[in-house]
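quick one before i forget lol
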Amino acid sequence: MERSGDAPDDRVQDSVARSAPVKAYVKDLWPQVKPAAVLAGLLTTGEHLADDQRAMVWERPPRSAASARWSAADLVLLDELTDLVDRTPSLGHVVLDEAQDLSPMQLRAVGRRASTGSLTVLGDLAQGTTPWSTTSWEESLHHLGKELSAGSTHLEELVRGFRVPSSVIEFAARLLPSMAPDLAPPESVRSNPGRLDVVQVEDPVEGAVRTVQEAAAHEGSVGVVAPDTWVGRVGDALSRAGVGHEVMDGEHADDTLRLRVFLVPATVAKGLEFDQVVVVEPAAIAAAEPDERTGLRRLYVVLTRAVSGLTVVHTDPLPDALAVSSAGPTSA
């Protein structure tokens, strides 16, 4: 057409673009990539995976990427792949709470959404209760793509709190050197120090019931926090003693909340607060987690649910970081 003095118009150009030779050439030069299909292929065949990564391969692959049931761990991989293919648009500002519990891959997913924007990141390292929780804010900021050493990041450690009384927070803070050694001890701004009792008994379940009965004689809510596997035993013992209670299992909420005594599995305690808290067998709560650091952090969360008073009921020795020097009740 050019040699004859003509020029291709839009109609001719569209016709060429739709032709089989050109479409095949474009596909070969720039193949279409669908992130879900790429990840499904990787997890089906194991191709390109190192030996220590082959544990990720599906035992029973789905028929197609569309029918795959992605796990939470798969989804962060899919998010990373999607960004490599399509590029994730950045937001102007992202507010991230409970950041201590996010994995490096989850943090990267958040960071991609603030690649050209800013971030406000909040959390408490002492309350990181996932095995992959961060060990430092410097580590978290690195995965978010906001290096602490870059000069554009400000880190502020908040040590004063108003919810937990001083006697309780000081007791819980004994755990910090063992599971979050870089954190400054928290301080309570309240003038009332609250009440702390650490009681060793022959039977922790029966001891907890007696303590709950005493606490329920006063105004306010009572939270009984027990190891997850003990909830049934403790609940049965409370019922036998005539103590009405609600079980907060984290799966459903009872909108009535008619009663003042709440039985709480340790893994559900985060975010809750009660006037009086009874913690049953701290050593068992810590031992239920996959590693010592996570166990002590779980225990720290449990111990800091009290607004007015905390009673720790135990038979087994307390974790070393919590051990008290004198036998019997310790009160503040």
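fyi Residues 252-256, 325-332 have pLDDT under 50 and may be disordered.
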